[in-house]
């Protein structure tokens, strides 16, 4: 579909990348990776024709259509959501107008036997068939299905786009691009403004409906689930890996180890040559050999080692006062704006040291509850902040609060204390502010760069309650790893509002789900939460629980004695008790299954390593865990059947 040959891009003395050649084929799902500044967004712009390379050729067939979603775009404010999405079918509207015009000509003309009339009939037939193949009859339904998949409610479709935030309007632009069904989709950070459910819908769409995709994303789970090929920009070159992202990571590690060995051997060879030249430079009997060594040395092409991120670097929050046992307690907290209730009857307790996630669709109240905890907005109910709490808060607009007159280095130098001051340059490097970047003024930084800088500041402040609202939107994978490790090692309490599953995985031990004006607690990690929703269908279970608690027959109160009332009440209470006990048993079984599956995966990875292949301890544990898992699955099935009978 797209052929790239000998591509070279220069913005300064050193080229961004050179001699790049590859082809984008039908059904390719390409993850474009590389450190920030490597040229990923630039390459996407070149592929869609918005930017010209210094040299090289990008060949796109005339009938190939390209859809491009940039990170930032100019948005329209004069239409409704539905009308804006309908612009995706502008070509179809023009085609319909041409068909109507030809139809009118056919009705008016009477030269039925002429060549011109027959040519018009043939043209009309071709265009009409094309129109029907484009799905002309059901495009309204397709618009609605796509917008709902990206998180909009059906009631939102007639609202003006001006009522929506920038993130939601970016979703409209993404919907327009998907609805156009281009031959090649170029997506630059498409998940930055999506929640977990919308990301999962987009994953499914790209896997099933898209023709070819080239995407840039810092959401590791997303690109791994979507990709079947990885293009890496490194050391000014583009390396093509014919595997999905996770496999690329393994292959890249092996490739770099080979490069390091080759580099070390080459350096050893160069050192030996130079030593020979220096030793025999002035001996006439060795003049020929010395000249040979000099020529060999000049011909050596230095081996380059792929760039490595600083994600292995370890950061730790500075020590802080010990907080009370319960940093946050909410009792019947509610928040409304006029007639619209964001949430009500929120009851939650967060213990010291817990790492919890707030998840749910955008607009369900995650950030609103955070603002209530911060005391920024009024609310109803009781919300208690524990003793000795010092809050470190990262809001989505945190970057706007930085002092624009300072440099990057000064911004961090002013908050760093103690030994950490000696490592400021290392820390800045881990977040892509290495070298000359640290001397930049804050006022010239992009929005993403400011967000990263605000995150570094937070990492250096002594706090015991961290509240992070979408902290990973502008971080690359290396920076996210640094942040994730720092939060995991943090001995205080953390509340993380995020749609990034990979970031939350292994970080949080409790998930609060926001939806429908309610906040529901789920014990376990983020994948436990997603798995439980998918398997047990919590919404249906809630309906069953509600119906189970209602008497199946309508009672005539006038004919029922006090004794029978008490008896019915006791029976209902006993029934509810049995249902709750069965629910608890199912949840406990699901938790055991999840733990065993996770351990089997760990053992699989261990046994794949050559040094562990004959480790009988791992083999024995794998066998016994597999057997226990099979038994627990059988037990879960029986418990689920019992619960279903009780609920019905």
Mean pLDDT: 80
Shape descriptor reads globular
Low-confidence stretches: 535-566
- Number of helical elements: 20
* Count of distinct strands: 18
- The amount of helix comes to 40-55%
Strand arrangement, major sheet: 5-6-7-3-8-9
Largest sheet: 6 strands, mixed
SS strand fraction: 15-25%
Oligomer: single chain
Structural class category: alpha/beta
Terminal Cα separation, in Å? 55 Å
Radius of gyration over alpha carbons? Answer: 31 Å
Structure description:
By secondary structure, the protein is α/β, with parallel strands linked by helices. The chain is 46% helix and 17% strand. The protein has 20 helices and 18 strands. The strands form four sheets. It has a six-stranded mixed sheet, with helices on both faces. A six-stranded mixed sheet has the order 14-15-16-12-17-18, with helices on both faces. Helix 15 links the parallel strand 15 (465-469) and strand 16. Helix 17 (526-536) crosses helix 18. The radius of gyration is 31 Å and the shape is globular. The two termini are 55 Å apart.
Would you spell out the secondary-structure blueprint of this structure?
Layout: E1 2-10, E2 15-24, E3 29-33, H1 40-47, E4 55-59, E5 66-69, H2 81-86, H3 90-108, H4 115-133, H5 139-149, H6 166-179, E6 184-188, H7 196-208, E7 212-216, H8 220-226, E8 229-234, E9 237-241, H9 245-280, H10 287-299, E10 328-337, E11 340-350, E12 355-360, H11 366-374, E13 380-385, E14 391-394, H12 408-413, H13 424-430, H14 447-459, E15 465-469, H15 477-489, E16 493-497, H16 501-504, E17 510-515, E18 518-523, H17 526-536, H18 538-548, H19 562-608, H20 616-647
Parallel strand pairs: 3-7, 3-8, 5-6, 6-7, 12-16, 12-17, 14-15, 15-16
Antiparallel strand pairs: 1-2, 1-4, 8-9, 10-11, 10-13, 17-18
Helix pairs in contact: 3-4, 5-6, 9-10, 17-18, 19-20
């Amino acid at each position: 579909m797209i052929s790239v040959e000998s591509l070279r891009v220069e913005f300064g003395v050193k080229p961004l990348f050179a001699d790049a050649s590859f082809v984008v084929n039908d059904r390719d799902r390409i993850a474009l990776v590389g450190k920030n500044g490597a040229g990923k967004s630039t390459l996407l712009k070149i592929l869609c024709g918005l930017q010209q390379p210094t040299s090289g050729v990008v060949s796109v067939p005339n009938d190939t259509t390209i859809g491009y979603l940039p990170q930032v775009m100019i948005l329209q404010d004069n239409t409704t959501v539905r009308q804006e999405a309908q612009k995706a079918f502008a070509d179809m509207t023009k085609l319909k107008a041409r068909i109507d015009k030809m139809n009118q000509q056919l009705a008016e003309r009477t030269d039925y036997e002429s060549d011109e009339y027959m040519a018009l009939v043939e043209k009309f037939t071709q265009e009409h068939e094309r129109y029907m193949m484009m799905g002309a009859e059901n495009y309204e339904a397709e618009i609605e299905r796509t917008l709902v998949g990206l998180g909009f409610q059906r009631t939102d479709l007639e609202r003006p786009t001006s009522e929506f935030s920038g993130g939601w309007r970016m979703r409209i632009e993404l919907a327009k691009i998907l609805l156009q069904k281009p031959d090649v989709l170029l997506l630059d950070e498409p998940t930055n403004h999506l929640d977990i459910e919308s990301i999962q819908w987009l994953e499914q769409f790209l896997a099933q409906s898209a023709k070819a995709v080239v995407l840039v994303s810092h959401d590791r789970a997303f690109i791994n689930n979507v990709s079947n090929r990885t293009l890496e920009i490194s050391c000014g070159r583009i390396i093509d890996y014919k595997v999905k992202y996770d496999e690329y990571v393994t292959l890249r590690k092996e490739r770099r180890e080979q490069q390091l060995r080759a580099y070390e051997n080459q350096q050893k060879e160069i050192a030996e040559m130079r030593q020979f030249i220096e030793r025999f430079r002035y001996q006439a009997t060795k003049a020929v050999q010395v000249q040979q060594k000099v020529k060999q040395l000049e011909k050596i092409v230095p081996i380059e080692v792929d760039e490595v991120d600083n994600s292995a670097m370890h950061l730790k929050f500075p020590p802080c006062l010990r907080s009370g046992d319960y940093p946050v307690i909410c009792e019947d907290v509610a928040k409304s704006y006029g007639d619209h209730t964001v949430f009500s009857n929120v009851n939650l307790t967060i213990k010291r040291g817990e790492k919890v996630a707030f998840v749910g669709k955008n607009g369900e109240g995650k950030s609103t509850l955070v603002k209530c905890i911060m005391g920024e907005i009024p609310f109803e109910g009781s919300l208690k902040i524990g003793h000795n709490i010092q809050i470190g808060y990262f809001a989505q607009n945190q970057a706007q609060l930085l002092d624009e007159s300072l440099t990057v280095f000064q911004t961090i130098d002013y908050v760093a204390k103690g030994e950490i001051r000696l490592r400021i340059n290392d820390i800045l490097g881990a977040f892509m502010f290495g070298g000359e970047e640290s001397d930049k003024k804050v006022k010239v930084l992009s929005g993403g760069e400011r967000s990263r800088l605000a995150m570094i500041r937070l990492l250096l402040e002594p706090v015991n309650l961290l509240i992070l609202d979408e902290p990973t939107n502008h971080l690359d994978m290396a920076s996210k790893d640094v942040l994730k490790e720092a939060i995991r090692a943090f001995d205080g309490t953390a509340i993380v509002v995020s749609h990034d599953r990979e970031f939350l995985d292994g970080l949080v031990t409790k998930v609060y789900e926001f939806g429908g004006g309610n906040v529901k607690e789920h014990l376990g990690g983020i994948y436990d939460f997603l798995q439980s929703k998918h398997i047990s269908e919590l919404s249906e279970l809630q309906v069953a629980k509600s119906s189970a608690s209602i008497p199946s027959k309508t009672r005539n109160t006038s004919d029922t004695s006090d004794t029978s009332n008490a008896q019915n009440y006791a029976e209902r209470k006993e029934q509810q008790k049995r249902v709750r006990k069965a629910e608890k048993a199912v949840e406990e079984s699901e938790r055991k299954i999840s733990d065993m599956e996770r351990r089997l995966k760990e053992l699989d990875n261990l046994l794949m390593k050559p040094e562990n292949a004959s480790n009988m301890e791992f083999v024995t544990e794998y066998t016994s865990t597999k057997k226990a898992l099979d038994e627990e699955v059988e037990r879960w099935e029986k418990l689920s059947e019992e619960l279903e009978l009780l609920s019905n």
